[in-house]
Specification:
2 copies of one chain form a homodimer.
Chain A (H helix, E strand, L loop, with lengths): L2 E5 L3 H13 L2 E5 L22 H8 L4 E4 L6 H9 L8 H8 L1 H11 L6 E4 L2 H11 L3 E5 L9 E4 L2 H10 L4 E5 L5 E9 L5 E3 L3 E6 L2 E7 L6 H17 L4 E10 L2 E8 L9 H4 L4 H9 L13 E8 L10 H7 L4 E4 L9 E9 L2 H16 L5
Parallel strand pairs in A: 1-2, 1-3
Antiparallel strand pairs in A: 4-7, 5-6, 5-7, 8-9, 8-10, 8-12, 10-11, 11-14, 12-13, 14-16, 15-16
Helix pairs in contact in A: 1-10, 3-4, 4-5, 6-7, 11-12
Chain lengths: ~375, ~375
């Protein structure tokens, strides 16, 4: 059986292990610590530094394919792995666009994918002229490294922009602050020989830059808009040469969809697929990077809702299982084996059914109770 | 999070790991070899002998609950663990009835569960008188240790019985050879504080004493018979004090159901629940032995069929994934990471849908192709 090496030991690698167990594929994880979420449940989990090329090369030895649980491996190291003959999926040429937001915007603009107005900015006057042209506030983004609301600043004036830029040393870009109706996401998979599949479009509910809920499918989405969003995502996967999963986060606006962010790995917006689709995103990623035929993305219920469990102040979530499981024997609980820290994504819940409001209430209740936000 | 120790590193422990990962429960496995099916996918998998009390005591240290992947731990060792203060589920008093077929028949007869005629036999004349009373052929069974058709002999005459008994040194029992319509199985879970749940009754298709297919629910089963079978299984779980899963294999006969065998662990007849029920048998077993509220056993599709993949002559199944997955993107493939040996259970496939004949064809095709029985 093939050996798949995943760089990074977070919950995405942890959940990939569930899929690897079913397929009989051997998963190896490069962990940063033996206590990493995935390292706890993978027998072959060497500890190493994903920023160290020697560590990466040692890790890749004996792997049939190397893939990623996050975007933080330096692009030049991925190129070096490829030059050393390692099969890396997604490859460096594609992954660059999930690592560098400015490169992503350039490329998407080039291929005609719908994007908000944007530009690279190096001094406050760049932001001022961009804001004066496209309107205030302006969204400033770190070109590399940001996620879950980090590395993003919304600035309302030239002064605020200057204040951010005096503090931040990394390259920045400016984007128009999109007046969106809601945020949606499209998950596609593409294999090296070019097969592609697309999951139903979902709505992602965000609070303070962190995804709190995913509604699958996105409620009341116009079928033409859904088809358009799926076409955009599949097209990006093809044109960028993505292998494995591609999650495309989008803004739904009155004028159509705009691409927000790209991720080339299993994604929070796809956790609902574990129970809610015939093929989970984790199995799909394995199938794609192994160049196996892709699995059916068909949903298993009319409505699926995933709610993230964010860490609260109680050190253990486990005592709260009792009430959640007694309250709703059909809700699914996922816990990532991570230490609880306030606001940290430590697990998620999934509910499935025919009535959206009810399904959403169930997932929400379980997540809120586990997080300690509610007590009944 | 609690630590669950499972004695035995086979595929049942392996699939339990998938459920443990979701719940955040830490699974520890006592493997007989580092290459065991489960040892490959569990980071905490010490090697030891399940027949050695010191090994069992060392393994149990730090476990919140100890449970089993098979029935082969000596009953006296389980009692010794309990006396040492280890929480063992199922406990020795219940597990005895899954280990000792004669003790099981005595107890089931006592509580009024429907059984075929049976008796302990120690010499050929016992079999002769039993056969003359209940009819020939007679089924001889090893009281302990048999499974998958091993430890079972169908004898047509006093001479054949004498021949078996001259070869076999273990205690035997005789059972009437039941003229059954088909074989069915009922899977229930019971927690220490007494909650019970029951999965839909399934049909188990056997060839040469090995289960080849499970049809869930059992097609065209009279609802009254289904309810009766479920009542019998739940009643056995309660009266025997089972904690965790109980699989009750039954014969369906024109006069009603008869109990054939008991297993107190996840069971081959329940593999369909991984995708086919809201709570998989593996998650259910963990919830039951941890005394968590039990999960919903509701099916996720009108028809679910599981087909076992038996080892053929090809050393690797993996090259056959290509055709199976391309042929049917919705069929689920499970491979246990075991070396292929002819006739060995090395994996299973699951199909779900609305038309039984079609669902069964799909699961069957995938399993047969993976096994090398067919080539298109």
């Amino acid at each position: 059986m093939p050996v798949v090496g995943m760089v990074g030991g977070g919950q995405l690698a942890r959940m990939t292990q569930q899929a690897a167990i079913a397929l009989g594929v051997e998963l190896r994880v490069l962990a940063s610590d033996p206590g990493d979420s995935a390292a706890k449940v993978v027998s072959d989990a060497p500890v190493g530094d994903h920023r160290s090329l020697p560590d990466l090369l040692a890790f890749a030895k004996g792997c049939d394919v190397v893939t990623f649980d996050h975007e933080h491996v330096p692009t030049e190291h991925i190129r070096a792995l490829e030059e050393a003959g390692v099969a890396v999926h997604p490859g460096s040429a594609a992954l660059l666009y999930a690592q560098d937001k400015a490169a992503m915007r350039e490329r998407l603009t080039e291929i005609g994918a719908p994007c908000p107005p944007w530009r690279r900015v190096s001094e406050p006057s760049d932001v001022t002229s961009f804001g004066d042209e496209h309107g205030w506030p302006v969204v400033l983004k770190a070109v590399r490294g940001g996620y879950d609301g980090r590395g993003v600043w919304v600035v309302g004036s030239a002064e605020e922009a200057a204040a951010v830029m005096s503090e931040v040393t990394v390259p920045l870009m400016a984007e128009a602050c999109v007046r969106f109706t809601r945020e949606i996401a499209v998950l596609v998979a593409r294999s090296p020989h070019g097969q592609g599949v697309c999951y139903p479009v979902v709505e992602t509910v965000q609070e303070n830059g962190i995804c709190t809920e995913v509604l699958a499918p996105a409620p009341d989405l116009d079928p033409a808009d859904a088809a358009k969003a799926q076409r955009v995502a599949l097209d990006i996967a093809t044109r960028l040469g993505v292998t494995g999963l591609l999650a495309v986060e989008m803004f739904e606006t009155p004028d159509g969809v705009l691409v927000n962010e790209l991720a080339m790995r299993p994604h929070n917006s796809g956790h609902w697929t574990i129970e809610g689709a015939r093929t989970s995103q984790f199995e799909q990623h394995l199938r794609a990077i192994l160049d196996l035929p892709l699995g059916s993305p068909a949903p298993t219920a009319p409505h699926v809702v995933m709610a993230n469990v964010l860490g609260g102040t109680e050190p253990s979530v486990y005592p709260r299982y009792l009430h959640v499981m007694a309250h709703d024997p059909a809700v699914k609980v996922h816990f990532y084996g991570k230490d609880v820290r306030p606001g940290r994504k430590i697990g998620h819940t999934t509910a499935l059914g025919t009535r959206l409001a009810h399904v959403r209430d169930r997932a929400r209740h379980a997540a809120d109770y586990l997080a300690g936000v509610i007590d009944e």
